[in-house]
Design brief:
The protein is of the alpha/beta class. 39% of the residues lie in helices and 14% in strands. Helix 4 (109-115) crosses helix 5.
C-alpha cells in the first residue's frame, strides 16, 4: 500500500521563489522559500501533515503553478484549485473567510474576526493568517490594519505591497 506523501517543487515568481506542494487530495503549500528555507519549511509541513515531503510533482501542483502564473500576469482573479487544508478549526475558518475577500479589495483583521463571529479576536486572525501555507492562493495579503497600514506578512511587507498593487492595477 502506497503511503501518502507531499510532492513539492521549487517555482519562480516575480517576487521570489516558492515551494509548491500537494498531497493526493489537493494543494497544501505555496510558501515563500525564503521564509525559513527548504529544510525548515519541510520540517514544519511534515509535522502538520504527518507525512514526508518528496521532490516531484502532480496534477495539483501543475494546476497551481499555472494559475499562480496567470495571477501574476493579471489574468486570474480567483483560484479554482482543490485544497488539502490542515490546521486548527479556527485557522481553517479564517482561511475560508480570506478566500471570500474579492480580488483588489482589503479587509482589516478586526473585520475578519467579526465575520468569524469572534469580535475582538483580531490578533488570533493575524496568527491564523501567519499559519497559512498557501499565501496568494489563500489571500492573507488582503488583510491590513483598520487604519489602512500594512502589517504582519510572513512573506515580508514589500511583497504584500507588491501583491496589493498588482491587484489594484488589474481590478476592473
Amino acid at each position: 500500500m502506497e503511503t501518502e506523501k507531499i510532492f513539492y517543487k521549487i517555482v519562480d515568481s516575480p517576487i521570489g521563489k516558492f515551494i509548491a506542494g500537494a498531497t493526493s487530495k489537493g494543494c497544501c503549500i505555496y510558501e515563500f522559500l525564503d521564509r525559513g528555507g527548504l529544510k525548515r519549511i519541510k520540517t514544519r509541513v511534515e509535522k502538520r501533515y504527518k507525512v514526508k515531503m518528496v521532490e516531484g510533482t502532480n496534477q495539483f501542483i501543475d494546476k497551481m503553478e499555472s494559475q499562480v502564473k496567470e495571477y501574476f500576469q493579471g489574468k486570474r482573479k480567483k483560484f479554482s484549485l482543490k485544497l488539502d487544508l490542515q490546521g486548527t478549526k479556527f485557522e481553517i475558518l479564517d482561511w475560508l473567510e480570506l478566500m471570500k475577500i474579492p480580488y483588489g479589495e482589503t479587509r482589516s483583521y478586526g473585520e475578519i474576526a467579526k465575520q468569524l463571529g469572534k469580535p475582538g479576536a483580531a490578533r488570533a486572525v493575524g496568527r491564523a493568517n501567519g499559519a497559512n501555507y498557501l499565501p496568494i492562493v489563500i489571500p492573507c495579503h488582503r488583510v491590513i490594519e483598520a487604519n489602512g497600514n500594512l502589517r504582519g506578512y510572513g512573506g515580508k511587507l514589500w511583497r504584500k505591497k507588491f501583491l496589493l498593487d498588482l491587484e489594484k492595477k488589474n481590478a476592473l
